Hints:
Organism: Rhynchospora pubera
Helix content: 25-40%
Cofactor: FAD
Strand content: 15-25%
Protein name: cytokinin dehydrogenase
Pfam families: Cytokin-bind, FAD_binding_4
EC number: 1.5.99.12
Shape: globular
Oligomer: single chain
Largest sheet: 8 strands, antiparallel
Radius of gyration: 23 Å
CATH class of the largest domain: Alpha Beta
Bound molecules: flavin-adenine dinucleotide
Amino acid sequence: LKNSFKFSLIYTLILILQTLSISLASLPQDLFHLKIASKIRTDEQSLLSVSTDYGNLTTSIPDAVLYPSSPHDIFSLIRFSYTSSNPFPIAPRGNGHSINGQASAQDGVVINMMSLGYGYHSNRINVSIVNQYVDVGGEQLWIDLLHETLKYGLTPRSWTDYLHLTVGGTLSVGGISGQTSRYGPQISNVLELDVITGQGEMITCSKDQNSDLFLAVLGGMGQFGIITRARIILSPAPQKVHWIRLVYTDVLTFTRDQERLISAEGSPLRLFNYVEGSFLVDRGLLGSWRSPEFFTDSDYDRMSQLVTEDGLGGVYYIEGAVYYTDEITVQVNPELELLLGELSYVPDYAFIRNVSYVEFLDRVHDGELKLRELGEWEVPHPWLNLFVPKSRILDFDAGVIKGILSNSSAAGIILMYPMNRNKWDDRMSTMIPDEEIFYTFGLLRTASRENLQVMIDENDKILQFCNIAGIKYKQYLPHYATTKGWMKHFGKKWNNFLAMKAKYDPELILSPGSTILSSYI
Length: 521
Ligand code: FAD
């Protein structure tokens, strides 16, 4: 106890000193004589603005922040570090929506990527109508990309649930949502990248050109290079969406219907452009921040009653979307009627709303604004995201959803939906289970000071349960405290990870916040 008190006192002192003064900074002073010096800030406000993230679980104050106005500024910084006798860490930070400090750079420099897109003359989203792709800066937000491509009647096909994330940030993890089962994750929708490696080289890469870098960077957690441009596939944009929720009281029917909806292409069951699913443990979550406005008042009441029905412990619902452009189909969509007739949800518990394409894709933003107003956005978020093989999803449901979380006082939003492995490229860095269908399980938790530790302990219990039960999950947005954990995560791909790191970031400069190699050296 004495030691831990001493440690926390020293730690606090370091934080205060780091914040107040740059004289302790370990950065070489020559850095401040480079041409980019005017874009490097060491003031308290700049340092604090990048010292934590959406997770609010870690604090890590860098020595400086770079506000680049061109990819060349990033190149200069990395080249300087790489060729210096004391290379220092550098982390690109997109919109800072990581959970565990992945975009931090203790004793180094954080690059505020979004400053690349500031300013009047910024022209960092270029649509090619003829080729149906867009060249977009890694710092751009997906919401801005959506609005720009829609001007041409085009749209990216694969999304995340929340669009106020940067292109570079989500391509560094994978980028998943209900469209993944149909169009693959966002990393499967990239044709080409411009990347600045840890040696300060600017390289264009694709599946045909410098393919090892292309495959490593996609899902690569910023370990091999910084994405300054991505070329992303576009397709014609729909105008409207049938946004659907179908309620289930047992996991078997719920998962069977989900799997039918993502089944063989060409089947009439494949009507949905988007398939997700959730378990609602608490009626308080019915109007949660993920889509506060979905249910009408009377539907809300019916759902509340069902969720709290004795013995159920909560309900599952499939969330689907069918895109359309024709105004006439607003009233009736015969194909959709037919499809709903094939599914086994609780009778009378199908809810359909017709909304615009933008309203559907940007549905989480309303919730964000409300939480921000209440001061409940910037609180700790001990999220846990796993990919679970289909063969064990019922065991997982019994042990985790109906087991560990059934006694939880704050389970939070629980996502559970299947994806097809054949829509992924296993050579990319995001790790996925070794089965044709696997489920994503997302535990999106909002903590208070009182229940944070309880939630962290529950997350650990879930992982322990899987390990003991032999469920071969992969963490999505992975976080491990030890190299052993990372080696297990990468499995057979660990040696390739090391080889790519040695080739493209031999001084271990980039994105140290993931702590993949910090205990390795
Ligand atoms: P940051 O958090 O700033 O950075 C993330 C990582 O990428 C860091 O390691 C950083 O160093 C690196 N990085 C950043 N920019 C670049 C770049 N240009 N080149 C190379 N590396 C870079 N994920 C999903 O897949 N689906 C979802 O539906 C989804 N919903 C979310 C909803 C919310 C409210 C939040 C907070 C997160 C959600 N996420 C989701 C997770 C999110 O996709 C990741 O955390 C993503 O990395 C965040 O992007 P960012 O721009 O904030 O990146």
